[in-house]
């Protein structure tokens, strides 16, 4: 119980800090940076569902991100639908696309699954890049509508968009928390640990994998839609395979298969790359080896390593108490 309460207290404190941040710090650059961190974190949380908890590496994640982004962009600029209806439809379309791809992709295993999803990601990129009449091709989409008003609440300022992205991130974390701490989450982990063992206890492998893949695509689509309305300009490069590898890097640095990992990794990597902008293309000479060393020596990422350290400390305390209890009992028997 104390552990649960401490985690809950920490989450409340971090949420309070995030809410108060724009009121204390008026730096527009930091606000923009954090807004992008929140938006990208949503996509990485989706990535974590399929890769961290089910154990399948999907390399089509940037493609689903782009479907959400182009979905809201095309629906607002060409179909001229209201923003919130466009956002909802873009997320649903991305989830349906994820389910369609997943039905075929999940019939493959291990590296074949990764190769197949990578091919899907490349196809999505080519469709966006070459379908000039619909997507604008290399020119991209310009003038995407910002988030529409909700009654008296407007999203014209950077601060309001910061709070909008934060709200969706909190909702995403809450949903992921509920999934992980439910029977569904334990089912995902059982599949990751051993599909054969999961089958023997009656788990439907394909159904649960497809659900995880669809949820992963849904969060990627939501993130892409928010990104498009925040930046208000998108091009084919957002669906490139390099974007998927960037999201994978965020996940590995933060901690794959952990609840805090996607946010921690995204915040650290984006902040570090921005702080090294003055080095231009040479910044990867510093940042690259750091990431490699982190992955080599801390394979569970920063969050996972902290959790492992805390777990070992608790185990040591329990063992120490047992030893003390045994010593007292032996002394009592001797007396």
Automatic annotation (TrEMBL):
Entry keywords, A to Z: Cell membrane, Membrane, Transmembrane, Transmembrane helix
One GO MF term: branched-chain amino acid transmembrane transporter activity
Top-rank lineage group of the source organism: Bacteria
Keyword Transmembrane helix applies: yes
Membrane topology: Multi-pass membrane protein
Transmembrane segments: 9-25, 31-50, 57-77, 83-105, 112-128, 162-189, 210-235, 247-270, 282-299
Pfam families, per database record: BPD_transp_2
PANTHER family: HIGH-AFFINITY BRANCHED-CHAIN AMINO ACID TRANSPORT SYSTEM PERMEASE, HIGH-AFFINITY BRANCHED-CHAIN AMINO ACID TRANSPORT SYSTEM PERMEASE PROTEIN LIVM
Stated name of the protein: ABC transporter permease
Organism: Guptibacillus hwajinpoensis
Taxonomic lineage of the native organism: Bacteria, Bacillati, Bacillota, Bacilli, Bacillales
